[in-house]
Amino acid sequence: MAIKAVRGVRDILPSETGRWQRVEAAARQTFESYGYREIRLPVFERTELFARGIGDETDIVKKEMYSFEDRGGDSLTLRPEATAGLLRAYIEHGFQVEAKPVRLYTAGPMFRYERPQAGRYRQFHQANVEALGETNPAVDAEVIAMLMDFFRALGLHDRLALHVNSIGDAADRGVYIARLVEYLRPQATVLCGECQARLGRNPLRVLDCKVPDCQPVIEKAPSILDSLSPEAGRHFERVREYLDALGQAYAVTPRLVRGLDYYVRTTFEVLTTELGAQNAVAGGGRYDGLIERLGGPADPGIGFAIGLERVVLLLGDAEAGSRPLVLLIPLGEAALRRLMPVARAVRQAGVAAELGYGGRKLPRELERANKLGAAYAVIAGDNELATGEAVLRAMSSGEQRRVPIAGLAGELIALAGKEAAR
Ligand code: HAM
Q1: 306, 107 in Cβ contact below 8 A?
Q2: Which residue in 335, 372, 334 sits closest to 354, CA to CA?
Q3: The pLDDT of residue 319
Q4: Ligand 1, atom nearest to 286 Cα
Q5: Residue 135: C-alpha distances to residues 16, 286, 289, 349 (Å)
Q6: Is it the case that residue 321 has pLDDT exceeding 80?
């Protein structure tokens, strides 16, 4: 029996890679326009980094990590997210001496042992951004605006909603959690089993539960915004003022809690209604104190990650893949030898060209030109070689004209310019 891919792990097929490339290019271009520089990180790290970074009580660390012992006996983990590794690199390479904020981005595969479903995989990809060393709330607003500019660059901004919240500083959260538990405890029996367990372990996560029975209770829960210290409250107010100044629309959603424990103050998520249960396309927030906990300087930080599979899903199938400008169709060996260098010259000019190898009949080759989506076909057999002119066929109209083979490459390159300008 043939071996199949691991459950929850998928191949990204050639029919999809055009969309992936577009998404990756939009991310790169948007981030670099804001001054972010790329950093490339390893896909596995010491297990301890994630336990310390993401939090022992999170679902990710408790039950979703791909951890293993290597042959030297070290416990290693395939990264479930990029922030912890990026901060490890920030500390290790002494980035803190650079002008603040230090702006970095990275992208690549992440690994979480979750139950696979549409939009949720065990290997998935994120584009991840971090701004390090700056507490000014203007950074929060700019980071969020940049995230939305990425979606705008892909024409998706109208289909997404930006939710922002503040979960305060650690002390505020302590106060809030006590209030929340006081509110939830008397109603515990109405909550799902998972939430009853969370009540003791990590009560904030109750707010994030999707089980219908829990919703009426969650809806009436006290708001974390009422428990913010004056400083955290002022910080959030200024984030909102800056977002307003940028003309960036958002909803304030006090029930927005994130699945990672490192956040303080600003948190945000970008949600869609189009992907069923997997409604978060991107999420992030501030994590002042985390760099210090990982053994580095007391530098604050804020960032986000975009789930690239979900963005690609939103783009849909309509997106055209890459197509060649032309299929060169030699009819026979002599014509093949004449057209091979033409194809090469065209490709060297950066124009995509496909070449037949002379073994198939003309109607089959024209069919193939249509399938490839080529705008033109060039046909040459013995007769054409004798006159020194090939037939150039526009595939959409079927119109044909003769072109000297000596000038064919130049003609095709000129046509590519015209196609691009259309
Ligand atoms: P996160 O919310 O865990 O945040 O993940 C960010 C995004 O990754 C999600 O909104 C979702 O689109 C995508 N994602 C997560 N899990 C899966 C999965 N199993 N399959 C497909 N897509 C998935 C973080 O990872 C933080 N490190 C973000 C951050 C950066 N915060 C500050 N800096």
Answers
A1: no
A2: 372
A3: 55
A4: 32
A5: 40, 9, 11, 48
A6: no
Residues 330-358 have pLDDT tens digits of 999 999 999 999 999 999 999 999 999 98
pLDDT tens, 151-175? Answer: 999 999 999 999 999 999 989 988 9
Angstrom distance (rounded) from CA 339 to CA 333: 10
Residues 211, 195 contacting (CB under 8 angstroms): yes
The Å distance, Cα 60 to ligand 1 centre, comes to 11
Nearest CA to ligand 1 atom 14: 307
**Ligand 1 nearest atom to the CA of residue 81, by list position:** 25
Using pLDDT thresholds of 50, 70 and 90, give the confidence band for residue 275. confident
Tell the residue nearest (CA) to atom 17 of ligand 1: 120
From atom 23 of ligand 1, which residue's Cα is the shortest distance away?
307
CA of 337 to the centre of ligand 1 (A): 52
**In the predicted model, is pLDDT for residue 36 greater than 70?**
yes
| pLDDT of the residue at 259 | 80
Question: 152 C-alpha vs ligand 1 centroid, how far in Å?
Answer: 20
Quickly list DSSP for 346-402: HHHTT--EEE--S-S-HHHHHHHHHHHT-SEEEEE-HHHHHHTEEEEEETTT--EEE
**Phi, psi angle pair for 403, to nearest 5°:** -135, 130
CA 54 – CA 56 distance, rounded (Å): 7
User: Of 268, 266, 263, 264, which is closest to residue 251 (Cα–Cα)?
Assistant: 268
51 C-alpha to ligand 1 centroid (Å): 17
Of 269, 316, 278, 281, residue with least CA distance to 116: 278
pLDDT above 90 coverage of the chain, percent? 85
Ligand 1, closest atom to CA 269? 10
Which residues have any ligand 1 atom within 6 Å of their CB?
81-83, 112, 114, 120-121, 124, 126, 128, 130, 259-260, 280-285, 303-305, 307, 309-310
For residue 303, give the ligand 1 atom closest to its CA: 33
**Residue 334 pLDDT:** 95
